What does this fold into?
Amino acid sequence: MSEKVKLTYKDKEYEFPLLEGAEEEKGIDIKTLRAQTGLVTYDPGYKNTGSCKSEITFLDGEEGILRYRGYSIEDLCEKASFLEVAYLLIFGNLPTAKELALLNIEIRKESLVDEDLKSILKSFPKSAHPMGVLSSLTSGLIAFNPSSVDIASESDLREAIIMLLAKFPILSSWTHRKVKGLPLNYANTSLSYEDNIAHMLFKLPHQDYEASPVVVSALNKLLILHADHEQNCSTSTVRIVGSSHAGLFASVSAGISALWGPLHGGANQAVIEMLEAIKADGGDTKKYMQKAKDKNDPFRLMGFGHRVYKNFDPRARIIKKAADEVLNELGINDPVLDIAKGLEKEALSDPYFIDRKLYPNVDFYSGIIYRALGIPTEMFTVMFALGRLPGWIAQWSEMRKNNEPIGRPRQIYTGENHRTI
Ligand code: SDX
It folds into this structure.
């Protein structure tokens, strides 16, 4: 018999079931709250609200734990490829050799996008932000793959998933090539999924290209670390758009737009722009720490703080170590890395940050690696989206398989009462 939670309102007592998750986290099931009491809850930003039950990702913000289908990100970064992690998130288990081979065959068959999509790309100015371009191209995919919209069966779903896993890296690489004014690359299906991403991003038409193991290993780790993060802003967007029975591609296109924001995935670009501004300002980190603490100053220490992690973001710990390794192995001395470390050191001993449990998050160091790999700053959030794709797909699939109702929150109306003209 599940525990109950009691609510007293107007001298009447109401009971609601207490749900307990696999990791002993607890939630009040208020599905019948309004029917029983006439009340709704009020929770701006859903800081205290569970939107769903999910079997995909578990994170513990206090302990700094992140697991995909029970596997720790530390283990997965060391022992799995990004495509294996994508399979794990979407289908629930790490693939056998046979399952991975089949997935590769299916993806290679779909590793082309309709040439007419280039006309959408061409219609953008070179100055267009790649996230806006990627969201449009992803939505444009629907027109060329109409079967991806009405998911009526497992086979329809698998077909749409394979198409997106195959075509999204191509479109992502095209946004990069557009920014750099370079000719567009096609997929090279003789390469691994991860090598092919590096190839499409970096191969120049007049030179042979062999992705260095350092680049591919760093990319693989970064993509795995961004692959899912339970009910974050962009994933919740993908779920709620999909809950209206909009298709997978349209839902992911909306998720890309949500991720673009500087408070979310756009923070990785904002971090580098912040570090560059501090460098240009003589490296005066103390001045920027003061600005970050000044309530009258809109400046925030980008890459710091997190809605859930009130301890170190475990991804930031791994990425910080990888940043040192990549820069050493590529022989790069990037002064903004030193500025980042200086800021981190100061923040971790500053009462303002300590009291608010503000630690470096996934975005604080990732841009330093992307930069070392030759990826332009405005492309950093596209790289985040490329990593997050399997998580979006997994969460969307779970929402549809569970036949979740259309998302439609309530409100507390504070406007005008009835009035006549
Ligand atoms: C991602 O949700 C996810 O899982 C997201 C993500 C994922 O994988 O999907 O992890 C990816 O989005 C990481 C976060 C990237 N964003 C940034 O780095 C932007 C800078 N960080 C902040 O804007 C902020 O920390 C948020 C948005 C990340 C979290 O904001 P919350 O949880 O709404 O917290 P809050 O804004 O209420 O802040 C609490 C206090 C406030 O001060 P007080 O009003 O209590 O005095 O902390 C302060 C804030 O002013 N604060 C900061 C700060 N972050 C919070 N002060 C200075 N610098 C900061 N970065």
